[in-house]
Write a structure and sequence with these properties.
Length: 474
């Protein structure tokens, strides 16, 4: 299978070719590996290949599986894969291997995906640019001097550079949507607890952390959600999936929606002109498609919500590092944690139980205010980022000034973390490119549990302004 033929298809398209016998799963695998060997030395998207998965005698996928024979990568964060290392992008966790699949990974296997390895991530997913000191920076396939975003930057760069059509991603502050924007992809953060998080995690970061994928097409995004949504055994809570499959829902369209539009950040700062232009053009397109457009934005204390979320996340990070040090019987070495991580761990260790518990009242207060806004509109359209992708090195983890680091990262990712706090579904769509050729995404956020309507709206935009054939040349 030649690369041009391989890249012409999304994941469902490749699976259909295999199912019809027009190409074998082995030929698809070889095309993916050929592309990986050609471009990964440039973009540094993939950090680990699992030898058993590359064996031609690898166990065949389940018969009738929707993605039978399609290659897939799992991000090196949060998700155990049996027999594969899971390092969280951190040298301290080198050698950590699990003997089981996370439930989401098991479902992806049952859907037919051939899981080949791991993609690059910043240490613990802390940065919105994938530039870990251990594994090196992931480069943007549209311009390799620029960031691929984070923390699912390796996943997004692998998809954008044509190694594969979709890849696993995670999101605790925008880590699916940010790299989707930087790489010209579709990136959905589903509603909280729509996907399984176990058995290794119960309530991931108290509902702030999410998992799904970055894809080139909306239909892949929907079909992967069909394959992976639903609670696992022992889940502390779950969000019911709609009765109609997400993929089937796309065909019916979203109906007429009331969509609010915001081009200033939630703390009332302006954004880069290209990001504002992307939103305005998308709003005009939505209006032409029959939707009601209003200029409005939720009113809440963004700084208080972000600080409360960071306190919860960084305290959890400190506990994770402490547990690993106890497991190893020694403290982290000088080269085993980045300066920004050390500062984050020190902060987490300083948080008292009383202070930690008090953050949930802050989160609840601000989330309720945001929820009230969504009783008046169906969707909110914003930029995904406040600026186009930055150059590599701008967002560095070499600093131990934690407050400055957080301010810089969420100065760029000013729109995404809010919906990790609320648990609402939010998607980044590649609706714009700068004159220099860098992708700029727009974000659509929907009501809690309205992933099906959000995906249907995304599919409507994809049909009206197709992006699938717009790819970087590398």
């Amino acid at each position: 299978m030649q690369f041009d033929d391989y890249r012409r298809h999304d994941a469902l398209g490749l699976a259909a070719l295999i199912r019809r016998g027009e190409v074998s799963g082995q030929e698809v695998l070889e095309a993916a590996l050929a592309r990986l060997h050609a471009v990964n030395p440039v973009v540094n998207a993939v950090t680990y290949l699992h030898a058993p998965a590359l064996d031609p005698a690898h166990a065949p996928p389940p018969e009738g599986a929707p993605f039978a024979g399609v290659p897939y990568f799992i991000k090196d964060l949060h998700a155990p894969v049996q027999g594969m290392p899971l390092t969280q992008g951190c040298r301290l966790f080198e050698g950590q291997v699990f003997d089981f699949d996370a439930e989401t990974v098991a479902r992806l296997r049952r859907a037919g995906f051939r899981i080949l390895g791991r993609t690059n991530t910043p240490e613990f997913g802390m940065n919105v640019s994938t530039e870990p000191l251990w594994r090196g920076a992931t480069r943007n396939p549209w311009n390799t001097e620029f960031s691929a975003g984070g923390s699912s930057g390796g996943a997004a760069a692998a998809v954008a550079s044509g190694i594969l059509p979709a890849a696993h991603a995670t999101d605790s502050g925008g880590s699916i949507r940010i790299p989707a924007s930087c790489n010209g992809l579709v990136g959905l953060k589903p509603t909280r607890a729509l996907l399984a998080s176990g058995p290794h995690r119960g309530d991931p970061a108290h509902g702030i952390s999410h998992e799904h994928a970055v894809t080139r097409s909306v239909r892949d995004c929907a079909a992967i959600l069909d394959a992976s949504a639903g609670p696992d055994i022992g889940a502390p809570y779950f969000t019911p999936r709609p009765p109609e499959p997400f993929l089937e829902r796309l065909a019916r369209g979203p109906g007429r929606l009331r969509i609010a539009v915001a081009t200033r950040t939630f703390d009332d700062r302006p954004v880069h002109s290209e990001c504002a232009l992307a939103v305005r053009n998308t709003a005009r397109l939505l209006e032409s498609l029959g939707h009601d457009i209003v200029e409005d934005s939720p009113r809440f204390d963004y700084e208080a919500l972000l600080q409360a979320m960071m306190t919860v996340l960084l305290t959890g990070l400190a506990a994770m590092v402490q547990a690993r040090e106890a497991q190893l019987g020694r403290p982290a070495g000088p080269d085993e944690l980045e300066p920004a991580t050390r500062a984050a761990v020190a902060f987490g260790q300083s948080v008292s139980g009383m202070r930690y518990a008090s953050q949930f009242a802050v989160i609840n207060r601000e989330v309720r205010r945001i929820g009230q806004f969504f009783t008046t509109v169906d969707m909110l359209l914003t930029p995904t980022l406040s600026a186009p992708p930055p150059r590599l090195g701008v967002l560095s983890t070499r600093t131990d000034d934690l407050q400055r680091f957080i301010a810089d990262t969420y100065g760029l990712a000013a729109f995404t973390a809010t919906f990790d706090g609320t648990g609402q579904p939010a998607i980044s769509l590649p609706m714009h490119w700068t004159p220099e050729g860098l992708p700029v995404g727009v974000q659509l956020a929907g009501r809690f549990g309205a992933d099906d309507t959000l995906l249907a709206l995304a599919a409507q935009l994809e049909q009206a302004a197709p992006w699938f054939n717009r790819v970087p040349s590398l």
